[in-house]
Fold these 3 entries.
Entry 1:
Amino acid sequence: MWMVLLCSLGALVALKWLLQNANSWYYETPLGEKKFSLPPGDLGWPFIGNMWSFLRAFKSSNPEAFLNSMVSRFGHTGIYKTFMFGSPSIIVTTPEASKKVLTDDDAFKPGWPISTEELIGKNSFTSISFEEHKRLRKLTAAPVNGYEALSVYTTYIEERVISSLDKWSKMGEIEFLTQLRKLTFRIIMYIFLSSESEPVMEALEKEYTILNYGVRAMAINLPGFAYHKALKARKNLVSTFQSIVDDRRAQRKAGNYVAKKKDMMDALLDVVDDDGRKLTDAEIIDVLLMYLNAGHESSGHTMMWAAVFLQKHPEFFQKAKAEQEEIVKRRPPTQKGMTFKEYREMEYLSQVIDETLRVVTFSLTVFREAKKDVNINGYSVPKGWKVLVWFRSIHYDSEIYPNPLEFNPDRWDNYTPKPLTFLPFGAGSRLCPGNDLAKLEIAIFLHHFLLNYKMEPINPDGPLMYLPHTRPKDNCLARIKKCGSA
């Protein structure tokens, strides 16, 4: 009996050892001698790799435990081998290691998980080649981030912000994050499609919420899983956008389309590249899906966290408010609202926004794939392996940002971050194309919030969720109260 028990125990130990090393044998053995120059780390269990430890950390109250465990096991190398989202991967956690990954387009291409590519679209910025990315970025830059466009958007954004804040102050308890996401979605829908239809926006925003939960989920297309639900949401969104594209084309062809302004849809329909080629419907829809998804999620979350942080730190709130009051005092009597020029003068508010972006780190990582064998800091990155630049580790590096978990806009006084130490919108040629529009939205909201309102959270110390983005589990249940005009 004892012999049977010992044999069974030995078999279990052997099986565990085999399973723990299966990924290494499968992915590292074909590398030959190059496997000895791989970064430290492990590839985890078959199929799931290190995803279990990643999900366990990010579904706890200590998401840093995932990277901290690697550091404690393998040292402060700044680069580790792992197996994430179905692929052998290299995680880089320092500005020095991330430099080549984010700036060398000859060595790296997008390497997003299958779930992201399928849901955002194969014609979006997340999936296309460097050449196509450069072409699309050039075609869409002016309508999104151009000076003239931003100046025009300022008035509309301000109108929506003023009416929304007034409405929320009369509603009692609200899910502050939910309402902010609706606000930013309404803004982005107007900018891109000139749409202000409440029923359409409500329906689309719900579909986008489902889509976003599946973007970084495991690509398990079975009922009940986030990816399966997100695929259905994408199908509904594509169908809706296809009908919008068809209607716009038909109206323009019939000559009965009169635009109040040229929106992104018009720009995408009109644009012709250097070879005389127009965008296909599939390309237009994927670009719209990408911009609309990114354009309201990050802005809404950042607005919420900025308000939360400022309410928790009255000294920063008052300093930011004083700047906005001074801007209002300087306005000529004939000026009705905020101008783009004033936005550019909001130096301290810009620091508040940057500090919020750093602390929250809306996108914790970006995905690339090695197009060839690459050397980073003396370690080998094999061709075809994914590389994850872990923004969260860079933003929380105490050598770059002392007391990194502390919200402190004053740290930005007369401070210019060194290259690749501040990455809220990525870096290199694939820098987020809507970054200027996002910061403008956030600034306009905070301008009016600081001047006239305060936020009272119902559960100020409530639990947080960290996937897909950091947020309170109650979506920041709060009361918005008017506190008098400046």
Entry 2:
Amino acid sequence: MEFWLMMMVTIICVIFGFMKWLLLSVNVWYYENVKLSGDKKLRLSLPPGDLGWPFIGTMWSFLRAFKSNNPDSFISSFVSRFGLTGIYKAFMFGSPCVIITTPEACRKVLNDDEAFKPGWPTSTMELIGKKSFIGISYEEHKWLRKLTAAPVNGHEALSMYIQYIEERVISALDKWSSMGEIEFLTHLRKLTFRIIMYIFLSTESEQVMDALEKEYTILNYGVRAMAVNLPGFAYHKALKARKKLVAIFQSIVDDRRARREKRGPEDKKDMMDILLEVQDENGRKLNDEEIIDVLVMYLNAGHESSGHITMWVTYFLQKHPEFFKKAKAEQDAIVKNRPSDQKGLTLKEIRNMDYLSKVIDETLRLITFSFVVFREAKEDVAIHGYTIPKGWKVLVWFRSIHLNPEIYKDPMEFNPSRWDELTPKVGTFLPFGGGGRLCPGNDLAKLEISIFLHYFLLDYELERKNPSCPVMYLPHCRPKDNCLGRVKRVSSTTSAA
């Protein structure tokens, strides 16, 4: 009886093992043998890696790692199985892809527009917009980027926003300090959203802002999720949020078109006016879909990254009193050395915040807010002795570069002093991406963060309720309690004085 029982167990295990092998071979057979037309040489030059299960690929492994307390275990599993090659094949977000983790390869992918084009997953483009920066051609992107970057970057534009940002920051900090316990991150995101709304739409409507911000929160949870369009799944909820965002923006566009006829030439113009007026060399103007997709993208990126990074810089400074003290001393010196008749910050003062700039850069490195960007090979491309086949996605994994101990000593340690003598080599510091598709709002983001920290360091401290609160990594890195705590006023000094 025991013999037959063992035989049955053995047979079941063999069948299970065979079925597992068969399923794990499906993606390899289809995408390497069929899709690559049986070209043996090309197949043999593919990077090492794992295409995973049919349809799902390696997404389960990715989601499991990023929902744990060790997101880097995803890439580490490739390194442990296939060696430190810096380039691995995988199957993610519905496509066969190659993950790039070295500065040299990242630099090539981000800068070679002849060989690579945007390769964001179809699911992501459905959420962010096919006519936004992530979906349009190189020439369209170049034209639209030049058009939209001017109002958010450059000396004149940034100088124009300083006073408005200052007023919002001073008011917010004063209000938060009287509210008791708050979700610090949630309120920071509302603050940065108010700022970007004003810059793009010249509005501070609480009703519109709350409606948009709520839908953006749902949208972002779907961007990194599996593209399962069924009730209950994050992607399904995100698609519904996208529809609501489009409806809100459509009403804003319609209202602006109607009001523009009554406006005088001297009235202030914002990003919405620019998008409505612009036309290319052939006289073509942007249609409503294009305008809305640009707004969806810009308003999302314009408040999410600024809010999260500001929270993390504040968190790290509070956690390291020696760095807090040094950063505060720099801000005290700025106030002390300015002319008596000057009210508020100047762009020159902000650009002279040398130590604070290092603190921000160290936070950008350690957190890596956007840990990956997507490209697609337009042709067969050779990198590091391997071939990236035409049509395969390329995932530029910034997080692996920023946390590489060969590039940054003790990479998991928050240490602004590492930047004292460090000039990062090309491809080793990519907090805002790189190449022709570098984030157009990076200067505005750093401006917002610097202004907030100036006033916070002068007069406030953050007392967290749960200092050991676990961190979640999707859709963005943050404490699970949204940095619950109290903003405490510790000084009556103000740099506006």
Entry 3:
Amino acid sequence: MGAVPRLLLFFCVGAMAVSAVTFLAARLLKKPPLLPVLLAVAVTGILSVTLLPSGSGAEVAQCDVGTPRNVLTSSSALLNVALFVPAPFLAVLIWRRPVTTAAVFAVLTGGIEFLQTVIPAGRSCSITDMVANSIGALSGIGLGVVWSRGRRQHFRKPLRDLLSGVAVITAGATLLAVGFNGRVRAVDVVTMDERRQEYADSLDGADQWIGEAAEGLFGPGTVVRQSSVEKDGPHSVITATTDRGNVSGSWPDRTLRWGWTARSKGDPGALDQEQARRVAHTYAVKWLPGFTEGSRVKVRELGDGTDTTAPYQVSYRRYSAGVMMPMRLDLTVTKAGRIMGFTSSDEKDPALPEVTVSAESAKRIATRETGKKAATALLLAQKVRGQWRPVWLIGLDDEDINLDAVTGKEVRPDPVKTPEMKVPLVEDGP
């Protein structure tokens, strides 16, 4: 009644109309009208409850094929069972052909679910409803058989009833199978719900962890205003928006990806590069320990050297056999010792082929290929067409060129995916 506000009105009007037609037909055929009229009312009730437009917003052209585990415990399923009891019961009493009646109502319940799927009426199709409808119909047929036996009424032509039932179920099932296969997409809502619950359970503790990380970056008293979660392969990316800045990390491995304060300007202070390195290292060892072990640290001052508030960038890079690995960690530290933010990439060290082209050879190749003088050469691991390769990054007068350190040929590295930072636009906080 709540889902279909005009259900009672439609049912009453429809029931009166079909009752009048059925009553007149029974009179013309000289049959008792009571049971046929009651059957017409019961069928009208089924069609009204199951096919009238609903405001549930169910998706069109999909059907839940999940295991009907709650068919005898769900209130909705039990109502469906009760809905389908009266009509088959009355049909058995009228025609005394239980097998044909069972086939007709089996096709009817399948047809109703199909119509609920393809008609944009806010209805949902599910195996649970089909099973509940079938249980109700079989219960009604069983009651009809018991009632008829109790009144010593014989069933008409059992063999014909059997053949008729088989014909009805075969034809109906064929038509429904063609319709469902051509128009309906099967989904397992039960499994989807279980997976959603498992995913929600897997996030237990994530909010607390990212809140602690935010407080570790921005200081005690940091208030998390909002947190969001995005799926990223086997991990989840947790992003916290606070009153002092934003921070993001990967769960459940608890690896921070980036963080940035709302106070985006440097502070005046007296820290030198070594002191800035120690400040960054203290933070990194606690919150980003996987990036510091075996890494080289480089500190440089940002800006042109004239700004007394220009912060330092402290970079961690890991090398293997002279090749810079794809792992990255960069922290920005003000001259007052405040960490403004950081970015990281926890890419694992890839297995690379042996380098055969030296730095000098790479410079000569670059000069020969471009006609420009090669100034610098940096050997690093890069992905080329999806495969990790040792690559020489050669700095020329006004451009860079990448050379494969095994073949000496120019290559174009794949674009590097960097985490999207949600940097606060308004300076805020102490």
